Amino acid sequence: MKQRGRKSAASLVLANADVHLINRPAPAADLTEIQRHYWVEIANSLPADWWGDENKAILAEYCRTLSTLAFLNAQIDSEEEKAAADITLGLYLELLKRREAMVRIQLSQATKMRLTQQSRYGARSAESASRQPLSKTKPWQLGG
To answer: What is the distance between the alpha carbons of residues 105 and 108, in angstroms, rounded to a whole number?
Structure first.
């Protein structure tokens, strides 16, 4: 059924608008499987137009950093499990130092790409955002 009368300006704009789909960037070809997993997870967590060509290299490095950090964490966990039996304290401390360095790199990269809350909000807007309720649902609407 057609609408009677004149068409609104808004409907005319939408009818004549060119629609351009923005594809999310595909993972870089030189990434490992786990690094590609991180890429897809991060790329899908933000708007499609967030990632320009200029950001792909730092996103790839960020995924490599996350992968290295996961490897170091697995090694540290393994050394901690050996603690009851026989621990190599020097290796354990070296792994902890390397993890700290990788965490610093990871946080720096995440901030540069505006993936952290700190990089998205100024001090005043973060304060006002923290005062907003987490849910817009009324308490009596929760549940069944």
So the answer is: 5
Nearest to 133, CA basis, from 42, 122, 119, 141: 141
Q: How far is CA 68 from CA 1, 52, 57, 100, 107, in A?
A: 60, 25, 17, 12, 14
pLDDT digits (tens, 9 = 90+) for 90-131: 888 888 899 999 999 998 888 888 887 665 556 565 556 556
* CA distance linking residue 62 with residue 75, whole number of Å: 20
Instruction: Report the predicted TM-score, pTM, of the whole model to 2 decimal places.
Output: 0.63
Give the CA angle between residues 38, 110, 78 to the nearest 5°: 55
Domain ranges across the chain:
25-118
For residue 120, the SS3 value is: helix
Sequence-separated (6 or more) residues with CB below 8 Å from residue 130 = none
